[in-house]
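Thread: Newbie trying to understand structure tokens

Hi all, I'm a second-year student working on a class project, and my supervisor (Dr. K.) asked me to get a predicted structure for one chain before our next meeting. I've only ever worked with sequences, so writing a 3D structure as a token string is new to me. If someone could post the tokens and maybe explain what I'm looking at, I'd be very grateful. Here's the chain:
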Amino acid sequence: MDIRIGVTDNPREIAMNLADDVDREALKAEIDAALGGGDTVLWLTDEKGKETGIAASRIAYVELGPAGGNPIGFG
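---
Reply by user tm_fold:
Sure, no problem. This is what the structure looks like when written as tokens:
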């Protein structure tokens, strides 16, 4: 699953590829907790196991890609 996160005061967004087996609803709950002030850092792990922490107070927006990843080819 693709995820893009906009960060305030930074023209570039953070783009990551998460593992295909990530629970979409659990991820949304983690994002909601971070944006709601429950967590100060949103931690995400990409498909290769690299962990990235983003300060919740700096998150401008979060965009989740479609479930199942991007299709390859013409269909």
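A couple of things are worth pointing out once you decode it. The radius of gyration is 13 Å. The helical segments are 24-35. Feel free to ask follow-ups in this thread.
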